[in-house]
Amino acid sequence: MVASGLLIAEVNVKTMCELGSGGVSLVSMVRRTLGNTGVQVACLVLHFHPLRPSCCLCGSFFRYIDNLHRDSIHYDCRWETATLFSLLLGGICFSGSQRTIGAVNGVLVFGIIASFTALVVVASGDLHWEALLKANFEAVPQSIPIIALSFVYQNVVPVLCTNLEGDLSKVRSAIVFGTAIPLALFLVWDGVILGTITTLGTEADKIADPLQLLRSTNGIVGPIVDIFSLLAIATSYIGFVLGLVDFLADLLKLPSGPNRPLPYLLTLVPPLILSLLDPEIFFKALDFAGTYGVLVLFGLLPAAMSWSDRYSESTQTPNLPPLVPGGKITLSLVFGGAALVILSEILENFART
Fold first, then answer.
1. Alpha-carbon 32 to chain mean position
2. For an engineered disulfide with 100, which of 78, 96, 267, 342 has Cβ 3.0 to 4.6 Å away?
3. What radius of gyration do the chain's Cα atoms show?
4. Domains detected in the chain
């Protein structure tokens, strides 16, 4: 996922140099490197994928509110609460300056780290290290799409390149160190879950959700999980909004920039409506989005675009150093790895039917 993000950044900066402007979206990158045929193929996925992340985030927030108010007399206010959430964060992205958005996101990230630390400390009270030596490799193929979806950030890479003015060194550092933080959090959290659930005996077999299991064994976990979930959803939502606004504006040829509300309305309203109508859309979309949407958009496409950028004679490539070393071998591994997961998922789904 780091390599694919760097490949997108590499193609994005080259496209910025060639077009002489910032704010280059994925559509423009595909059109420059893969031509109209590539755009048509990509749009088969791009047509239905852009709104899915926001649907997932709205749906997850709706479920979060749903759980909070399930036993409350204010249960009927959950629609209004979810709508206020989208309007508040969407309004910050629409009217806030880059500094304001960065400050808000920084506060949210600090809250995430603080609540995550508290959650790990509380949940790891009965951690058994020997449980981490066990492995079930048969579960690996099913976990890859969810892992890929968990590390999606590539949609904000064009925004990152624009904000950093195409400075490849800064872009590389931001992507590498930026993804290292969630990687560390994921590894720690997986260690806590796997080292705790396996020690709870038959109780773990009755409850499939690890968080639900932790809630049932420790009353302090619940409020911390609620805070952490809200902050995590908020930061992800801001990132997706910033990335999708430029993407939709370019895809649909809409005017973008300050005081241009239409791209924001198309980004915020449809996913909000869909998630309110079906709060479970978050879970329904996870596996499908991870396998097909994410691995096509941020697995196959980055490798194909970079290959065309580096080795196609028809592509006019600015003389910039590659962000990902290894040449054709690396690009083949990125493309082949994503294609293998997609193919295995297709075969598995076909076998089920």
1. 25
2. 96
3. 21
4. 2-352 (1.20.1740.10)
**DSSP code, position 318:** -
Decide: 271 and 58 in contact? Cβ < 8 Å. Answer: yes
Q: How far apart are CA 75 and CA 29, in angstroms?
A: 45
CB–CB of 198/131 below 8 Å? yes
This prediction has a pTM of 0.75
243 CB-contact burial (10 Å; exposed 0-12 / middle 13-18 / buried 19+): buried
Compute the average pLDDT of residues 98-126.
85
Q: Mean pLDDT, the chain, as a whole number?
A: 77
- 139-174 residue pLDDT tens: 887 788 778 878 888 888 988 888 888 899 999 999
**CA 9 from centroid of its chain's CA atoms:** 16
Does the pLDDT of residue 288 top 70, yes or no?
no
* Separation CA 251–CA 271 (nearest Å): 18
How many Å apart are CA 15 and CA 23, to the nearest integer? Answer: 10
Give the tens place of pLDDT for each residue, 211-243: 677 766 667 777 887 788 778 878 877 877 777
Position 11 pLDDT exceeds 70: yes
pLDDT score of 4: 93
Give dist(CA 81, CA 63) in Å, integer.
11
Tell me the DSSP string of 106-134: HHHHHHHHHHHHHHHHHHGGG--GGGGG-
HEC sequence for 154-168 = HHHHHHHHHHCCCCH
For a pLDDT cut of 90, what percent of the chain falls above it? Answer: 13
Q: What is the mean pLDDT of residues 43-66?
A: 54
Looking up tokens 């209004």 gives 80
Cα 228 from Cα 121, distance rounded (Å): 14
Buried b (16+ CB within 10 A) or exposed e, 157-171: bbbbbbbbebebeeb
Write the CA distances from 169 to 10, 14, 55, 323, 348, integer angstroms.
Answer: 11, 14, 34, 9, 41
What does the DSSP assignment read for 13-47? Answer: HHHHHHHT-S---HHHHHHHHHHHHHHHHHHHHHT
